[in-house]
Amino acid sequence: MRRTALVGPRPRRLVPTAIAVVLAVGFVAGIMIFGAATRAALLDEYARAARNVDVALTAAEGTRLPLSTVDDVGRVGGVTAVEGRMAEQAPLVDRQGRLVTEFGAPGHAVDVGDHPELRPFDLRTGQVPQADGEAALDARTARRTGFRVGDTVALVGADEQRHEFRLVGIVDITGVDGGNTSTVVLTRPALVRLTGATGYREVVAVVADGTVPSDVVSRVTTTGKVRTGDQLRRDLAREAFGQIDGLLVGLQLFAAVAVLVAALVIANTFNILLAQRMRETALLRCVGATRAQVFRRVVAEAAAVGFAGATLGIGVGLAIGFGLSRGAALPGIGLPSGRLVVGVPPVLVALLLGVVLTIVSALVPAVRATRVPPIAALRVTPLGGGGGRRGRVVLVVVAAVLVLGGAALTMVGLRTGDPQTAMAIVMAGGSCVFLAVLLLSPLFIGPLVSALGWLPGLFVGVPVRLAAANARRNPGRTAATTAALLVGVALMAGGSTIAATVNRTAEAQLNLAFPVDYLLTPAVTSGDRTATVPPSVTAGLRTDPTFELVAAVRHDTAKTSSGALRVGTIDEAAIGTAYRPAVTAGRLADLRPGTAVVSSGSDVLVGRRVGDQLRLTGGGGRTITVTVAATVQSATLVGDVVITGADFGTLFPAAAGDSLVMLRTATGVSAVTARDRLDTVLATHPLVQVDDLAEFRDARNAAIDQIVAVIAVLLALALIIALVGIANTLALSVLERTRESALLRALGLTRGQLRATLLAEALLMAAAGAVVGVTFGLVYGWLTADAAFGDVDTKVAIPVGQLAAFVGLAALAGALAAVLPSRRAANAAVVVALAD
Amino acid sequence: MVCLTMTTRHPRAAYLARMTTTLAVEVTDLVKVYGTGDTTVRALDGVGVAFPVGEFTAIMGPSGSGKSTLMHCLAGLDSATSGSVRLGGTELTGLSDKALTLLRRQRVGFVFQSFNLLPTLTAEQNILLPFDLAGRKPDRRRLAQVVSVLGLGERLRHTPGQLSGGQQQRVACARALLGHPDVIFADEPTGNLDSRTGADVLDVLRRSVRELGQTVVMVTHDPVAASYADRVVMLADGRIVDELRHPTSEAVLDLLKRLGA
Hints:
heterodimer; A: alpha+beta; eight-stranded mixed sheet; 22 helices; 16% strand; B: alpha/beta; Rossmann fold; six-stranded mixed sheet; 9 helices; ABC3_permease_C (chain A); transmembrane helix (chain A); membrane (chain A); MacB_PCD (chain A)
């Protein structure tokens, strides 16, 4: 038995199954290989800070270890070397004189240290700073800004003035706090002079051979945290993996989709194969094969194909891992790329996945094969397929339950306050409905294909009508074929609808609330004092004719009975112009001393209505009570609660300077002129960050497009597997219909028409999958986005271009899938086929 | 078309006319060789035969005599190795696949032994298929006539799965007849039928010749089926070996016995 299974009657027919396995396994293995390599690279990078360290003292958040700590630790028995590490905020200024920031955060300066073996960085080119006027820069920032060894760089000091240094080296170093912010290495005296540092962020020590680090840890007394080098390394590793684990989870989701689609394709292939082999199976049963033997034969065949596919899949996985690693090294993500190594785990997982996936997918067809009665060998016409009436009723009932449950979940999700929970619930509801759609697709796919074929049928004639009839012939098979495509298209359409809707809604909110061109914010928000835009800057801009609107915002945190929230105030002149939120009740014009405009989107303020009293406690325990004059839809940059400047002064008497300044360019002034003017005004205040809203919008749009593109590329893999599925179904159907095709050819169907028939069949199947997929993706994409925005008025955006592209992609997949089968069918000799 | 000229008064003149101008199909020196080298099989070895318009001819012969190959070559389904096939005045040798396909569509009708109909189409759609393929409109009056002659009026909306074997063959006959082709080729049309329904189908073919002036060429190995024809052409080892006019089943059987089949 095993021999017949392995040799198989026609192994070529299993090639598409193998391809589906190769791709699914390749994706999974590729992600594992990429994950392992990137984790190793991240670990290497983070490990620099813990190299040779046996004991580490870390200052508590916002504090520093006193300079005396180094001597204190040095006196503990067993310690052979101690190093104090300073790290202070020291924003770098780029060649254009603007601050170098990463998501608004400026960079740091660290000191070079006394012990080379305890340095947290590696020199890449040049040398380590030795004189006070020398500096080294991290490689990532050097690449971004174009600074090279020999250049002069400027850092903004604690005195808010620029200080110049000569760049002598480029180093590999992880940003302070684990981010990708710029890091400059200085000598310790230079660092202290620049930043006014009074202590260390971290003190590390080496202990003598034979001394147990944990003993030393227990003998150190400090205000910070004490860890052994091993504990430090473990913590750093956890921090490192945090950077990539989210990405890996996302990739694994895509891999799961690929595996699901592959399973659909494999199950469909085996169903068709076994249907075609029914007489053969019946013959086997006639000559004495038991049901168990028939079952084992199919399973063994599946295992062999799965194993072969998985073996090839490992190779594909290596390629995918390489591609991912290249992609992750792009500036947008900026992960270090490590050396790709195919370890034992990916190989084992790949082989296991390939074999298990194929066997599990082939299980139902295999069980069905055992039910073929021996008498079928003697029948001329094959048995009609079909689950029977009862099966259909069960199907409809299960689907109905799923639809109702899914709809209920969706409704609940849309009413849930917390956006994350709401999205999750809506997505769960969507999954239920999607499952129902898949279950029911055998029932509606036929009529859908007919409907899609109706119009082209009028023009193209027989081929399309024949194709529609063929696609309807075995709805179960057609449904299973399109399902594979449907999954990918639905996810793509959903993803792009969410992205487009989020983008448009955010844009609308932004425009609604802030019809301005620039936002000025303080670049540095250091621990104790709230940083502000200096009043002189605001005053200077107010008199500048370049800007027709200069609106200063002050905000701070106040307490209420139900929690803390942000209280702000904005120039009265800006209300209705620069500050223009969506009002849900009351009037903005009613804002006067003693009243407030509150955001109904804030958790703390839920249920507050116009006329309600609100008691606010500000800095130094000062308290005011305000009456709600108006409610607005969402929290804005001004604050959850907006009060007049006078009330703000009462509540926060210590406040100086503005938290935020909004600018609108006067009509007729070009963007370049305005920005130049702004840069000139701010030249003496390098710590003021400028957000160019046009730039910001462009950047955000680009980022969202990038996300959509990445999702599309990843799901394209599912589409490729689905393509294999369509080609497969079509090829096997062609085989089944050899005599039919021959009859048509005898009756006068030209080769071209026969090819057109098969092409039309593939296109109709693809179109059916695409139509259902896009419809579903659109509806649930919108619902998910709606849930994500909660109270905010969601602006539905239909990404027509992208959706059309996905439908086009699906159609292309269908057309490609039809190439080989149609060529084979058209080239068959009529006479031979008739005699078959 | 051509059959309308059959209204000649003088039988001798009609015979002469057939001999000279109104041959539906004519083959000369037809050779068909399969395979190469040692495995060469000469399926047709210099066949020459003519099929006059308005005649019902049966091609008979033992298994492997080449009768199916001959029919395939006559119908433009297969190409001969050498020799000539003229169908209604058109030389088939050397025609492209496309030209052959169009010729079959417009000028040839087929009734096969089994699997004559597309399972996805209704009886009516099957009958109209050659017209659909050509993008032509059928003559509705002729359709009604053919359908009523064949007794298919009630069955037009049924799919092949809902029809009996005899009904399926009659639908195939209707399809072949509708376009009034130069010639209808029937390949063992009764092979899968019981004797009574088989007789029905043969009667339809004979009536189409008598009443509609159709030309029919039928391949069969059944002497009873052959007895419906006007003439039997006997094939053995790829050559025409004998011919029988106005055959009876006994005469055909005798001839077959003499050939040692």
